[in-house]
Amino acid sequence: MSKLSSKKKTAKIVLEKKKLTGVTARVGIVLDISGSMRRLYKEGVVQETVERVLAVASQFDDDGELDVWVYDNEFSRLPGATEATFTGYVEKNILSNDSVHKFGRNDEPKVMEDVIRKYTQEEPNGDPVFLVFINDGGCKSGIKKLVKDSSSQPIFWQFVGIGDANFEVLKRLDTMGGRVVDNANFFHLDDVSQVSDAELYDQLLNEFPMWLKEAKDKGILK
Question: Strand, helix or coil at 182?
Fold first, then answer.
């Protein structure tokens, strides 16, 4: 069994447990590529993370494609990752891609605006969007306005903090008012590479089912 096949099998089990089988959703991932992330790119942790989230996309998305963004103080919208292209995806599309700005400072609002633009203006189709946002700390407080503004849209933001930096902005998302529905969740992992696939998927999909129900109740989703 290939590495991705094993992850897909695990993802399917977690989806069944959370009663998410039969749900069609678009899946995206936003990857922090600020300077402090350099080691995780070099050691293959980011590639592994892309593969793990791709396994979730393969269960949710009709074409099994994972939409990918990277950001530091600039951002790039990259080609989607698929079962056919995931091997060496990070090396080919990010590290060896001179057009991708990398290892600068972090500026989350710019890339979040592009995520919202893609799913609500350029390619709206009514399906829910499950957006995994990987960050290693120090998020700009401007993300709060974008999370609020997008609470009436079919986008669920699943923020994942990795490492031992400051995540105060992300920690406050769960209690943030002024939203149509609670459209964001955050959890923190000291070392994502030490967390099993089953545990990662369980945490990733912890609040998504509740958001789906609330978004349908409020007419955000059909």
Answer: coil
